[in-house]
User: Fold these one by one.
Assistant:
Number 1:
Amino acid sequence: MKPTRPTSSSHRILIAGAGIGGLVTALSLLHRGIDCDVYEQAPELREVGAGLWISANGARVLFDLGLKDELERAAIAASERAIRLWNSGEKWPLYEAGASAASHKPYVLLRAHLLRMLQDAVQRLKPGAIHLNARCAGFTEADGKVTLKLEDGSEAVGTALIGADGIHSRIREQAFGQVESRYTNALAWRGLVPVDRLAPHQARHAVYTWVGPSAHVTVYPVRWQDTALLTFSAQVEHSEWQLESWSVKGDPADCLRDFAGWHPDIIEMITHVDTLHKWGIFVREPLPRWSKGRVTLLGDACHSMVPYLGQGVNMAIEDACVLSRYLEANADPVRAFELYQNERKERAETTARRAADMQGIFHNAALASRETAGDYILSQWGPAQNAARYNWIYDYDATSVKLRSGGGLVGAEA
């Protein structure tokens, strides 16, 4: 897709939230000649301490937006992806370089790299489109316009509003009321480990998911400037957690207790990790609808999901692409939002359900002993199982999926 500047479109879209979903939405709209502005509560877009992966379904959208070369420069191409047993370290490959399942290979990079890439691309097309220190307080809709109200008393007026403001979305709360979160009896640990602190064999460009009876850990390489790092992303079953947060600092001693008896590689990572964060893993029940008049939702604001399939970011990227295509094809944003919801709701919610199901697959009593672990892993991650679990996710192409022209709202009366 060739980049354009806002031209003759009658839309002026307001986007609440400059996370990955909000920025991909802005970039997708600007590429289609649709004017937009992004309003972000943070004073700056900066997050070094988290890795992510972009799977094939998300990468297609970024490639379509002209970011292929930048993504490939920022990311590390993993040569191997494998399941590993929590205590022995034994490996069962999901794919290796050149295998027929190579399309499952993710791009692994720091969230900060992707945010910077998207921010720069948006600013190239529309300087000043991203407004920082702009905390959303609510909105009003009247006379074919939406007014976004900010906590500093200022306002922005547009033809439509997209709430890409995450799991604690203010836009969702006003549009649909309070949606209670549910704790999933698991918490997450996240940190980055400088590779030069680890044994040399840990520097391999591989994505490993270590599975055990009540926890699992995903490890993959990233880089920040000239520093090679490993992302340590672990989920552990815990019966209680009070705070729904992404930024609570964790004590490595507590993390070591959670992984007592695990393989020395895991213990070494925890011992040498830079700042650890931990958070309770919460989800919200699916909304009956995502759109209301000239307001719609995107990403975590409307379909929160656990991280066990690595699809939270990728689903938001898909949302952004499909939504921008419907706005390009429809002069009426109300109609565009209805059609977008119809296209995306079932897929996103199915992904969320299947991600939740993975907790009982990653954490299973059969993994407690080597005698039962091997057969169990082969039964869950053999070629047929991998194809059934992943192909329908990775094969979806948001850039070319056929746009709908009719049909009632999913989850609502027609």
Number 2:
Amino acid sequence: MKKLRIVFMGTPDFAVGILDTIYKNNYDIVGVVTVADKPAGRGQKISTSAVKEYSIANNLPLLQPTNLKSEEFLAELKSLNANLQVIVAFRMLPEVVWNMPELGTFNLHASLLPEYRGAAPINWAIINGESKTGVSTFFIDDKIDTGAIIMKKETLIGKKETVGELHDRLMNLGSEAVLETLSLIENEKVTTTIQPENEELKTAYKLNKDNCKIDWTKSGKDIYNLIRGLNPYPAAWTYFTEGENEWNVKLFEVDFVEENHSFNAGSTNTTKKELKIYTKDGYIEVKSLQMPGKKKMETKQLLNGISFSDELTAK
């Protein structure tokens, strides 16, 4: 049985869930690598990663390189004398890093590879209306998410499940997969499967302002999936226009009701408690939203203090 000396690399909350599981199962974590601190938000306050905060709280040795190829970082990493590296939601590694440990470097990815390689696999599985997803562990190679697969675990996606809810479930499933992968490696029982290549594969593109904007000419189901696939972060958005007024609005909890109607896509119907936005095949009922400069709130709370005219349009 191999005695594992692990370096863990990761950044967001998702990675913390996996790191916590490794730590609480008494594996020897000889170092943690995370992103350097940087200013963020309107006040440009210095922001630290969730992985850094966890590492400090648990007295884990921490490295925060700005350049993964720098001689200083490579020397520090080598001095940790790790024989395995575990990567969760970090960044692309140069070969000199992933090829360093004797037992290799494996990554946990939140999709059933080879589908949904890329930056936002949890979001895109919901946006595209998938009924199942999962996690995969694989040994890293010189491309993004293409290495030999060690294992996969799958789960069904609920019809109303948001990306926030699925994120937390996949973090738990990922923790199980990483523990099982560590056991296979330390017991020298790993077998791998080369990923198949074809042009039909779906990609988990990086999210940006353009692909988070709602297109009201699409089907109601597609719009519904986009909104729940971006709830709570980074959130689907649209413009509300009323006469000369225009607001950039984020939508969160919504329902889709399929029905025949004669309204134009993007037109609205509001009461003191409800906000409906029509699609070509029904309407989206908005349960919570965020107006510019305001906190997220329930729609009925907003409509208590503001009334829109029949001219209100989403576009």
Number 3:
Amino acid sequence: MAQLVKLQDYISRYEIDLARYPTQFIRLKQNHWDRIKHQWQTGDMIERWEHLDEEDVQEEKKTSLFQKIFPFKKEKLEEEQEQEDIEKVVITNDWAVDNDEIHEEDTTLLFEPNLVYTPHTLEELKKMFVDQFFHFQMKWASSTLREKSYVDPKFMRDTLLRAMLQTLPDNYLIFYYPIIRVKKAPIELDIIILTPTECLCVTVLEQEEQAVFIANSERFWLKKVGKNEKKVLSPLIQLNRMEKVVEQIFTQNNIELPIRKILLTRNGYIDYPGTMYGISFVDKRKFPEWMNYLKRSVSPMKHMQIRAAQTILNTVQTTSFHRDIWNTEDKEV
């Protein structure tokens, strides 16, 4: 599950301490998954999955109620365990904070998923887990102990955001339409994905289902939907602008991380004659393959990746409210 470092101009936990929160995210997610999977395998499922500290995660010798209710063979259980793909990412890196202690900031917004039904397979359990962990990620990307941002409900329904967070590995850091300040002027970028080895600038081109986008000039493209045709502004203008902004930020801070541009549409097609250096076109035909390629990353987080994320965070605009004001408003209502 990729980490949502910044969502638009919302306050983010990663702004507090980027050296600590990525490792804490990975440990928290893995500890909860190990615990929930163990409960499911032993039949020790509870109505509410409460937060469990790392030192409390212990194997308990209990009679397997689950096996009595669902008499799967041991071989079947082991087979499903092998198919599990909740990734385990190496977190012992030169940038990571060793021996993390639980600070005051860490005592809030703990992950407490609800058991809405009893999953019959490990795959169902995993889906329930990642769906509820998505809401937890949104909290981390929009609030801290002292501050909170108003979240547009559209992000909770954003299928691309959910797909990226749930499909990409833990060592990917995502900036989702961040608002940064360039010479005191706010600029909204598109999607920035920082992998351990490169920076992906992604511009999304999704309009009507089955739309075909045909490049026929530097400034304007042709959009065809059935028999209808319409001239649209070239999406490469926005994509190139984002790359230049990110490149400028990296150059000013001595960040050596290759930048690759992606033009993405999940529900349409891109017809671009020839190839263009530094740009990948990912349409409906290539999207599953592209996501699988990104998902196969096995490299641990890198120091340069964290530095790159920090330099972007240093330029972002943040709009938030102190929690005391938030609570006062709730009482007045």
